[in-house]
Amino acid sequence: MTEAAPRRRARGGGGAARRAERSSVSFETAKFIQRNIPNMEVLNEEALEIIEYNAETILEEVGVNFVDNPAALERWRNAGADINGERVRIPRGLARKLCSTAPSEFTQHARNPEKSVVVGGKNLVLAPVYGPPFVRDAQGGRRYATMGDFNKFVKLAYMSKWLHHSGGTVCEPTDIPVNKRHLDMLMAHMTLSDKPFMGSVTEPSRAQDSVDMCGILFGEEFVQNNTVMTSLTNINSPMTFDDVMMGSLEVYAQNNQACIISPFIVGGAMAPVSVTGTLTQVLAEVLAGVAYHQLVRAGAPAIFGAFVSSIDMNSGAPTFGTPEASLVTYGAGQLARRLGLPFRSAGSFCGSKLPDAQAAYETANSLNMGLLSGVNFMLHACGWLEGGLVADFEKFVMDADQLGTLHSLAKGVAYDEGAQAMDAIREVGPGGHYLGCEHTQENFKTAFWKSDLLDYKPFETWEEEGARDTRQLATSRVDTLLAQYQQPEMDPGIKEGLEAYVAKKKESMPDSFM
């Protein structure tokens, strides 16, 4: 893994500018992960072929529903599908053929070009939690999210070294009208950060607002020729594509922007209880979704999504970090690679109500699963709590810190002359130690990953400093990052254009909280 150099302000205007630069807070943002380790593959060739065959059988015999979307039905009819009411049955081979025009890899451009990301191949892009209506922190407890909370999360994501992406609806700001909050969220991503971000999908007109605002930020021609947004399109499993999500997908596809086409599956409720049955349904739904995306605009970037959890058969609550969900994710990664599509899955998943041991166990299982399954775009990489109902500030920085371990693991094992360390072994010899040898002195600063959060001090020092647990350390880390935050520079004309667009859109409609 290599890292981009910290972005520096341009010098100019003499001593005042140089003094401002010296006094500014410098921080690193890691480049997206480039894996140098193999993927974990749990399915053999026979199993893969069975799942692929059965998925196309589902599309041909059972079909999928496109609800309240006559234009989608017409597109499918013209492509050769059988239409009966809102049910679309897709002849064997048609969906796979349509999917073949989607790129296997694409660049999502950030307004700071140094922070653009490449999605696909052996790359892994990490983005924060998405969608919780509640937030939690040590001081205020669990509460409905506000726009102030949203802005804090965007700043934390911007300041977090191991996050490559600003995300989308990091939390749902319930103090802003439903029909206007997407404008404020987009403004926050565009102005408080210079990392890549996601567009709105809650209504097609809001997707169009996202495209229009990107036209101001990047230039309209640049947007049409390049991908500057990723968006999340959830399928209503089992096998239902609603008009709101598909309407937003149509806007993004028409404008060459990326869509994550992702079944939302709780095993045992929205899919069969078996791993193979769930994988079959996931593949059928993704095939239909990506194929439709390519019917709208062939060549627009699409991502194979798989959000899978199991269910507690006693309470009905979703469970996370389980072996079955891991097996589905590993298998989905194999299926995505055989389709030649980038893969989205995994995250800091847990069902715990607090950032406690349960949260840590389940999150660690989920994050490592994501790395080893070949995920290319990991949404929910930090901050997820309570099955996705809560975005937690302390857990956000706890998870973001641990994402550094994924970067280090992905580098694999070096075996060049320096890594072989033969000179060091000869220098130290039997019975010695390596603390003072030349090889250690040359490499000690970079040899081991170092947490910016966890406590490794001796007991006496830890006790003198207040015997703080991890959550208390995380509270301090949140405060430190927000205190050090400095807003990235933006062209004043672009900022004025965005502010004018948002003001005009808000004035054009009454507030609605429905």
Measured as a percent range, the helix fraction is: 40-55%
Mean pLDDT over the full residue set: 93
Oligomer designation:
single chain
What percent strand?
A: 5-15%
Number of strands: 22
- Main structural class: alpha/beta
Gap from first CA to last CA? 45 Å
Q: List the total number of helices.
A: 19
Specify the overall morphology. Answer: globular
Gyration radius over CA = 24 Å
Low-pLDDT runs of 5+ residues are 1-24
SSE layout:
Elements: E1 3-4, H1 15-23, E2 29-30, E3 33-34, H2 45-62, E4 64-66, H3 70-79, E5 82-84, E6 87-89, H4 94-99, E7 105-108, E8 117-120, E9 123-126, E10 134-137, E11 141-144, H5 147-159, H6 181-192, E12 197-198, H7 204-218, H8 220-225, E13 229-235, E14 240-241, H9 243-254, E15 258-266, H10 275-296, E16 302-305, E17 307-311, E18 318-319, H11 323-339, E19 343-344, H12 357-372, E20 377-378, E21 384-385, E22 390-392, H13 393-410, H14 417-420, H15 422-428, H16 438-443, H17 459-464, H18 470-484, H19 492-507
Parallel strand pairs: 4-14, 9-20, 10-22, 12-13, 13-15, 15-16, 15-17, 16-19
Antiparallel strand pairs: 1-2, 3-9, 4-6, 5-6, 7-8, 10-11, 17-18, 21-22
Helix pairs in contact: 2-10, 5-6, 5-18, 6-7, 6-19, 7-9, 10-11, 12-13, 13-18
Structure description:
With 514 residues, this protein is an alpha/beta fold. The protein is built from 19 helices and 22 strands. Strands 12, 13, 15, 16, 17, 18 and 19 form a seven-stranded mixed sheet that branches. A four-stranded mixed sheet has the order 5-6-4-14. Helix 10 runs parallel beside helix 11. The chain is globular. The N terminus is likely disordered.
